[in-house]
Amino acid sequence: MNPSTSLPDAKLAPQADSSVLQIFGGHRLHGHVKISGAKNSALVIMAGALLCSGDCHIRNVPLLADVEKMGQVLSALGVKVSHQGDILDINASNITTSKAPYELVTQLRASFFAIGSILARLGVAQMPLPGGCAIGARPVDLHVRGLQAMGAEVQIEHGICNAYVPNGGRLKGAKIYLDTPSVGATETLMMAATLADGETIIENAAREPEVADLANFCNAMGAKIHGAGTSVITIEGVPQLHSVDYSIIPDRIETGTFLVAGAITRSDILLSPVVPDHLIPVIAKLREIGVQIIEEAPDCLRILPAETLKATYIETLPHPGFPTDMQAPFMALLTLAEGDSIINESVFENRLRHASELNRLGADIRVKGNTAFVRGVPNLSGAPVIGTDLRASAALVLAGLAADGQTTFQGLHHLDRGYDRLDIKLQQLGAKIKRVNEVSTPGVTSNGSTPPVTIAN
Ligand SMILES: CC(=O)N[C@H]1[C@@H](OP(=O)(O)OP(=O)(O)OC[C@H]2O[C@@H](n3ccc(=O)[nH]c3=O)[C@H](O)[C@@H]2O)O[C@H](CO)[C@@H](O)[C@@H]1O
Ligand SMILES: C=C(OP(=O)(O)O)C(=O)O
């Protein structure tokens, strides 16, 4: 499949806090979109590169603010990081400090997972509690208990997780059962176990494709990890890892987002490269809603315009269940489906905040606890909206593409954290969307509820 267009300038847009997206909805999309490497793989693979004292040449790295921040975390640890296009070179032969910087770690989630690799390499790590999307309390108890089971002393004090291996020794293999199949805890512990003494078994491990991608990356450096992608992962510790050249998997959540973009605008678009097997619950749900999706090639999906969208029931679950990261985009889609849909968010306790913003666009959604009741409406109408987190922001942009008239979206810093130039990719598909500088109305704060006045660049 030949990409129809290539993306311009491989650098992030200027810091997005003062910019908004103006979307003129009601236009169909057409053409091909190139899917970038997976955010959640790239970030944890960067943490995994700390396990190796040789060169890590990582390909298909998405251009994201989170990747940039993670690079800064590694640099602050004394690691050599260079980024060109979608290639990242990391050399962690010399980690000069075990203390990760608070200002950076608190801006993203995956930075915390590096506690596993730093501890395995240095026997000591000081890691501030992480940031990331504000979608729940997001504790790190499973990471901590797993590291303790491997012989580390771990304490959280003043917002910092301090961990060390007593007597300057190595972590020890252990049998660890996770109460819930946490993606991050599985990854933290898998990385820690890679250089531990003996065998570690993680039971009730997360089965997300990004966990398997991290394991494949580590194995390509000489680690001995078996079973990643299943709920039992076995890791036989090795003394050290070697240089690697590795390519990250396509982002299944970005793919799902563009599938919903096609569905909500009743468009015919092609998406590649993708791994359809990573999208089974998403594709199944879209088909149930009435959307036709064709596998044009093993790595290429085509979505065709749906005649009618039908209501459905969605419950988010750990992989291979329906992904929580696709919940908000699907809520946007279901606002325009015929009938009453129910969405139950069972992974995070506070991930329905986009519902009230979608209602500004004319949706009919009520929320009770972790359940959203979505009554389909015939159309949406453009309005100013504010994104509360990454996928909530994507949902609002998608709804804006379908809404009549102009939608002004505020919250680009969320989108830029996790989508590789979403606005530009949508423009290339024919969407009427542009990034503009916001001029705040005097007396109204930038996160205030009064709609901002905007001018084009
Ligand atoms: C950077 C990254 O990869 N982020 C993804 C990762 O986040 P993250 O790794 O943070 O998500 P988890 O899988 O850990 O969280 C799942 C559930 O487990 C709970 N939990 C987690 C850890 C812990 O120590 N204790 C605990 O109770 C969480 O509060 C949550 O309710 O997986 C999520 C679930 O697919 C995705 O939404 C995020 O996009
Ligand atoms: C929740 C997400 O990201 P993070 O874990 O990085 O906050 C996400 O990607 O939807």
Automatic annotation (TrEMBL):
Q: Which residues form the Enolpyruvate transferase domain?
A: 25-421
Q: Which Pfam families match?
A: EPSP_synthase
InterPro entries named in the record: Enolpyruvate_Tfrase_dom, Enolpyruvate_Tfrase_sf, MurA_subfamily, RNA3'P_cycl/enolpyr_Trfase_a/b, UDP_GlcNAc_COvinyl_MurA
Q: Where in the cell is it found?
A: Cytoplasm
Active site feature: C133
Residues annotated to bind UDP-N-acetyl-alpha-D-glucosamine: R109, R138, P139, V140, D141, L142, D325, V347
> Annotated Gene Ontology MF terms?
UDP-N-acetylglucosamine 1-carboxyvinyltransferase activity
Residues annotated to bind phosphoenolpyruvate: K39, N40
Identify the pathway.
Cell wall biogenesis; peptidoglycan biosynthesis
Q: Does the keyword Glycosyltransferase apply?
A: no
Question: EC number(s) per UniProt?
Answer: 2.5.1.7
Q: Does the keyword Cell wall biogenesis/degradation apply?
A: yes
Q: Which residues carry this modification: 2-(S-cysteinyl)pyruvic acid O-phosphothioketal?
A: C133
Which key words are in the record? Cell cycle, Cell division, Cell shape, Cell wall biogenesis/degradation, Cytoplasm, Peptidoglycan synthesis, Pyruvate, Transferase
Q: Which residues form a coiled coil?
A: none
Q: Provide the function of this protein.
A: Cell wall formation. Adds enolpyruvyl to UDP-N-acetylglucosamine.
Q: Which family does it belong to?
A: Belongs to the EPSP synthase family. MurA subfamily.
Task: Identify the PANTHER family for this entry.
Answer: UDP-N-ACETYLGLUCOSAMINE 1-CARBOXYVINYLTRANSFERASE
Entry protein name: UDP-N-acetylglucosamine 1-carboxyvinyltransferase
What is the species of this protein? Answer: Nostoc spongiaeforme FACHB-130
Q: Which gene encodes it?
A: murA
